[in-house]
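Incident log, entry 3
Record: MFS transporter, ACS family, D-galactonate transporter (434 residues)
Problem: checksum mismatch between cached and fresh output.
Input:
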Amino acid sequence: MTQLKTQMTTRPTRMRYIIALLLFITVVINYMDRANLSIAMPALSQEFDLTTGQQGILLSAFGWTYAAMQLPGGWLVDRVRPRVLYASCLVLWSLATLFMGMSGGFVALIILRLMVGGFEAPAYPINNKVATAWFPERERGRVIAFYTSGQFIGHALLTPVLSWLQTVLTWHWVFILTGVVGLIWAAIWWFVYREPRDKSGVNQAEIDLIASGGGLVDVETGVKKEAKPKLNWTDVKVVLTRRKLWGIYLGQFCLTSTLWFFLTWFPTYLVDYRGMDYIESGFMASLPFIAALVGVLLSGWVSDFMVKKGLSLGTARKLPIIIGLAMTVFMLGANYTDSSALVIVFMSIAFFGNGFASITWSLVSALAPERLLGLTGGMFNFIGNLSSIATPIVIGFLVTDVDFAPAFVYMAAITIVGVLSYVFLVGKVERVEE
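Fresh output:
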């Protein structure tokens, strides 16, 4: 009996799964506040009489500050505990979102959208740091896939709801209510999240399991004990001069280009070019996000399964990304059919591929210099999310009032570049030395 009790007390707890759930919900809110503008855009553009070029500029406003703040955001992630930094960012971007619902002009919307982008910038580097601290390498693919799936679940479930809300209460309430949700979650994160050694309910066996599997359970402790160095050009040079890192930077730009198409122009495409009403477009727009959700969950399981079967980490992490990017080219099929049903099929296949490729942060965890996890994640997100600027603007000026086909040609070409970057630049997956 005593021996049984001893075994039970030394069995690892599972608090890390609660942390995964916290990250998942935060990502849902994060992407809800990124996509609410695309849902409101058809009604908003009609009210303010915006051209396609102006719509593209407004849709890209988030990306300007989101990309620009990646390096400062990554620097902050290396120095400020996730509990404090994430709660602060949530409050600030949620307030900006809320005030978008009260704005009465094009300029005010752009300014507030710039604020949302800037305050959301540290989000994914924080996610990556939390996952690296709380999970061993063999579980990290699944947990990254799980919390990344939040961006697709949020859209699959919330796009029809927000579209209905816009129809009933006007587009203003889309922003007001999503902002309020973010403020509530900021308080929950603050009260619940802690580092592995500080979190109640975690036993030493779980900490040992994480640490022995490559999890950096003491990454915050090390930062606290040592003098916190200033950002210097030597560190920046390290993350900018490694071929492996440039492979994932360029690949991420190509991957997120597809994501930003769905986050910005896709609802407008369905309403203005396919003739759907707001409620119908909200339902149809949710279907590719469901497909992407299946893709991202499947990719995490497949990737970790390959690791367990003894395949190299590089094969296990890169193969789903390459296959997923290649599938995105199916988007071109929309140019060759008049059937709205077939359009949704092509888009669902393409976005399934995008989801299947969305475990790219696992390569940041595996490749980044240990001391520069935040800075590498910031650079990765900075270059990757330049697509949040390029995609809305380029599509806005490529399409006309009656022809959306050039947008899909552009998206297909970008994804092919992404495949080539992972095949020829990343190479063997191993941590980059400083």
